[in-house]
């Protein structure tokens, strides 16, 4: 008996739970249908509005609010508030998208700043410059000797060097060195160490001045020697510079922490010869180009000079440039206001000098043409800014004299040398009074390198040398870490599309796919509605069946299969006429007796 009562109570509880659940579901269905405008007839049936039946005209008086609450929170107020919010958010979206496009087409940049900690540093391109008086201090001139004796020694020496190899390998008498140096320095001064108009004026003076007749004759002799032995002007410059420095250079070497175990062969390269100074650089081949792995001295140079010949002269101090510029006079070939970091010009004679350098910053900018920051990336085989400006000077002289300047011939191509041979300025006619010679227009196209390095140089004098005719220069490297700043574009195509998607989705929740669908829908609407209506007005007809063939796929919404397309209105409802009519359900039992009867029936079935 107890078991039967328990089963009956459990069945009664289950029935009550199911009836309550059905009642709640019915109430939700009725509220949903009322929101869609359905008319409730009784507890079990509803009357849906026929979408094909014309709606009754709305009386304007019925739309007026009946109270202040209805005016502030009624249906019309909520409708206008919704329209205002959507319009306001749409304006914000359009503004954000417009600002994004405007910023994108300004090509904005951003910079990343980091500190780099290195285990080693690259050997810098160091340039040493000394004055001509210091370089010539070993040459003892006998001013009382006749000129014929000088010429005889020069001619005899040249007669013993009949071919290219002997000319380049045999040591020269100091008279040959001085004549060759004077020739190279004169051409450099004419062609490079002045402005464009100053170069034209110097060429005019060199051609017509009577006091330079002997120099013109000497240069003509050397030109014939070079042509007969097939020696280029650049080879001639290197040989002359090495012969000048051979008498002064006592030590010129690259040093490492383990000097006893590592020997690095260091060559000498002449970068500049002029009437004021001679400049040179250490040069290494591929096998001897080593990085700087330890702080401290990495290069030293020991020079000698003839103290007797320089005793009554004021000798300019030497200079060291860690940027590797060809000379300390390159201000004539570069733009204005450039930084002079990494440069020291206080290496005076008879002293021991220690020069400590380290990199403070490395800037990598993007190529641009903006005033003040314009630059170009210099790739292998391309001209640096200095060579670009030198090429402009070469083109200016070619236009004036129809020949290639000797000191700039290293920039010329072989095929161009047949059209523009090396210059013989005695055949060049320059009208200095009426002519206006300038290379500014060409030089404006020469941009600095986008990769800029900034050095900090500390110089200290460690006292005088024991021998007054010696000068010691030691180059040391400081810390290996430095600051880097690298520019990059703020937007790439991928990041721009992502930013655009964020802008249109921020306020209205749109996406790129929504925009594509909206554009497609607008195009379809204008082409099939407006255009076809105009055609119909003219008496033409079109097949309405074509309109139904735009669906790309179909969706079953429960009562029908509906064709969907990218041309569909993205803001349209899936059920245009509201929710489909729900099937009728039985009425909810309202009495407890009915529940008990149902439970009793369930209990009897168990028995």
From TrEMBL:
Q: Which Pfam families match?
A: ASC
Q: Name one GO molecular function term.
A: ligand-gated sodium channel activity
**Ranges annotated as spanning the membrane:** 80-98, 496-519
Membrane topology, record value: Multi-pass membrane protein
Chief location category: membrane
Cell wall biogenesis/degradation among the record's keywords? no
Q: Which family does it belong to?
A: Belongs to the amiloride-sensitive sodium channel (TC 1.A.6) family.
PANTHER family, per this entry?
AMILORIDE-SENSITIVE SODIUM CHANNEL, AMILORIDE-SENSITIVE SODIUM CHANNEL-RELATED
Its name, as the record gives it, is: Amiloride-sensitive sodium channel
Source organism:
Caenorhabditis remanei (Caenorhabditis vulgaris)
């Amino acid at each position: 008996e107890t078991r039967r009562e328990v089963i009956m109570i459990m069945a009664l509880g289950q029935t009550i739970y199911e009836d309550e659940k059905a009642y709640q579901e019915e109430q939700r269905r009725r509220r949903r249908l009322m929101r869609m405008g359905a008319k409730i007839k009784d507890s079990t049936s509803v009357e849906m509005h026929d979408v094909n039946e014309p709606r009754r005209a709305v009386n304007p008086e019925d739309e007026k609010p009946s109270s202040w609450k209805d005016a502030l929170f009624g249906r019309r107020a909520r409708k206008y508030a919704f329209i205002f919010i959507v319009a306001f958010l749409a304006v914000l979206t359009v503004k954000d998208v417009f600002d994004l496009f405007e910023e994108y087409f300004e090509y904005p940049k951003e910079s990343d700043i980091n500190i780099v900690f290195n285990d080693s540093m690259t050997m810098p391109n160091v340039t040493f410059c000394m004055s001509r008086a210091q370089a010539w201090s070993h040459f003892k001139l006998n001013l009382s000797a006749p000129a014929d004796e000088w010429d005889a020694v020069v001619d005899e020496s040249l007669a013993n060097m009949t071919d290219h190899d002997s000319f380049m390998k045999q040591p020269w008498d100091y008279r040959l060195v001085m004549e060759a140096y004077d020739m190279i320095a004169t051409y450099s001064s004419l062609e490079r160490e002045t402005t464009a108009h100053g170069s034209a004026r110097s060429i005019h003076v060199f051609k017509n001045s009577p006091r330079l007749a002997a120099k013109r004759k000497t240069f003509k002799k050397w030109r014939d020697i070079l042509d007969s032995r097939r020696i280029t002007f650049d080879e001639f410059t290197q040989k002359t510079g090495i012969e000048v420095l051979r008498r002064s250079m006592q030590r010129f070497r690259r040093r490492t922490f383990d000097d006893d175990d590592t020997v690095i062969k260091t060559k000498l390269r002449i970068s500049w010869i002029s009437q004021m100074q001679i400049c040179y650089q250490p040069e290494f081949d591929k096998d001897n180009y080593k990085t700087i792995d330890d702080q401290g001295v990495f290069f030293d140079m020991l020079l000698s000079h003839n103290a007797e010949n320089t005793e009554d002269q004021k000798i300019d101090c030497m200079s060291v440039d860690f940027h590797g510029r060809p000379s300390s006079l390159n201000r004539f070939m570069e733009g204005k206001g450039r930084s002079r970091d990494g440069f020291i010009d206080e290496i005076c004679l008879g002293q021991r000098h220690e020069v400590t350098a380290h990199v403070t910053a490395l800037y990598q900018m993007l190529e641009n043409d903006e005033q003040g920051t314009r630059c170009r990336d210099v790739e292998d085989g391309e001209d640096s800014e200095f060579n670009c400006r030198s090429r402009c000077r070469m083109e200016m002289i070619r236009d004036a004299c129809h020949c290639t300047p000797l000191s700039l011939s290293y920039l010329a191509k072989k095929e161009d040398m047949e059209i523009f041979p090396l210059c013989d300025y005695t055949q060049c006619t320059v009208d200095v009074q009426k002519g206006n010679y300038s290379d500014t227009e060409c030089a404006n196209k020469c941009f600095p390198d986008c990769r800029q390095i900034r050095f900090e140089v500390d110089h200290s004098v460690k006292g005088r040398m024991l021998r007054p005719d010696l000068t010691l220069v030691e180059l040391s490297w400081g810390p290996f870490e430095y600051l880097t700043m690298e520019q990059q574009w703020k937007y790439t195509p991928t990041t721009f599309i992502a930013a655009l998607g964020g802008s249109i989705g921020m306020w209205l929740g749109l996406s790129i796919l929504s925009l594509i669908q909206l554009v497609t829908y607008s195009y379809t609407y204008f082409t099939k509605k407006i255009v076809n209506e105009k055609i119909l007005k003219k008496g033409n007809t079109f097949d309405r069946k074509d309109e139904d063939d735009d669906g790309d796929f179909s969706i079953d919404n429960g009562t029908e299969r509906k064709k969907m397309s990218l041309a569909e209105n993205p803001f349209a409802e899936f059920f245009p006429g509201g929710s489909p009519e729900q099937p009728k359900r039985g009425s909810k039992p309202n009495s407890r007796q009915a529940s008990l009867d149902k439970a009793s029936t369930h209990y009897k079935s168990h028995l």
